[in-house]
Amino acid sequence: MPTSFVKRATETIADWNRRRTAGWRRLPDFIILGGMKCGATALYETLTQHPQILPALRPDVHFFDRHHERGLHWYRRHFPLVPYGFGKKLVSGGPVLTGEASPHYLFHPHVPWRLHAAVPRAKLIVLLRNPVARAFAHYRHNVSQNLETLPFAEALAREEDRLRNDRACLQRNELHLSADYQHYSYAAAGEYCDQLVAYHALVAKQQLLILKSEEFYAKPGLTMQKVLAFLGLGHNLPAAMSLPRIALEPPVPTAVADRLRLTFEPHNRRLYEYLGEDLGWERPDVAIAA
Q1: What residue numbers bound the domain in which 108 lies?
Q2: pTM of the entire structure?
Q3: Residues of the chain where predicted confidence (pLDDT) is lower than 50
Q4: Which residues contact 187 (CB under 8 A, 6 or more apart)?
Q5: Most buried among 10, 69, 121, 227, using CB within 10 Å?
């Protein structure tokens, strides 16, 4: 019997089982909102090595941005069974959590209220990366996925034109999938302050943990300790937890980095005032770092 047939049959049975048992599955206790290309997936993959964290069917479920019309029953299918979590809790002697990480959640305008309506008590985690470096990483990702053919400087110049139609469509129809809005938001996705304000309008500040990507890249152990404490899992890292090694990326071309730094300066200043912390992204050596 062909291997491909067996694989498809197995996946069909597993999907059928998840549909039938969705009502017995738990909703997430935590959600990593992004931002995009800020290390959210690496943070999630590290976190799910903890014995008291049960992973979702896949890290990025994208329910609140791409699949919201499928309903909460569909969303539940991606998470562990309640009895399984109860059994793990008895074994561990402490809380057992599950969650997901969909990096577009931070930037999508309709996600905050959708998420709050579905899981109002979920703890939310945000990683913020220098927006200049984030924009270039976003661009390089698109190039690698054959989503972008323009040079970086031209892609930035074309951004507003590319996003205009999707912005309007999202205002008229909340279920619009907004592919361009996600793919080509190199600068817009780095304007973090308004994105955080949208969440803080719905949840208490204590429910939202904001981390600096550069600190996660440089000191992943320290960041993981903060995350575990935020989730109520103590400060100690499991001995078997493998911390991520972030590969160095090419620096942002200097001329473009200088222009972007000026573009982001007022947005960063608003963010620093809002957080009560200067993240130091205006220094040239930081702005062009991977």
Answers
A1: 3-287
A2: 0.91
A3: 5-10, 286-290
A4: 131, 135, 156, 159, 260, 263, 264
A5: 227
